[in-house]
Design a protein that fits this description.
α2 packs antiparallel against α3 and α4 packs antiparallel against α5. By secondary structure, the chain is an all-alpha fold. It is built from 6 helices and no strands. Helix content is 52%, strand content 0%.
Amino acid sequence: MVNTRDRDGEGRARSARPRDGLGRPLAYGAAGVERQPEGVVRSPSETVREAQRLLDAGMPFHAHEVFEDAWKSGPEASAPLWRGLAQLAVGLTHAARGNAVGGARLLRRGAAGIEGLRADPYGIDVPGLVRWARELAGRVERAGPAVDAAAEAPRLSGDSGGR
């Protein structure tokens, strides 16, 4: 039997289906958004800048991939920060897709993961992001319907955390 799964250039399984801004697979041939390349090594400031651009564009799933690259390629000491930020981005993704339970759970998990970290690693407003995530998780649980990912996108740096 011939294996017809999509593969990347190195032979790993990787869906070639286009995706929408929230990372949902679309039908083959549909117009999707450009996917984030995997395995990109960026400086912390480049990671924050690219993730913020994607969050502001309402593409938290794609921002999660940027954080995941930083988590996997960076120093071990920074992994909890990038992992927590990836969880926040996935939480916002689920909330925007209408998955209130999963969205709230991941927002809280990401907040707990970064809560004890230094207040401003790489200029990231950790306390503000923790507040933003917990507030959004509560609203998502109470309201239920999907949120607008761009309107709810957090500010990663500065003194506000959320918008």
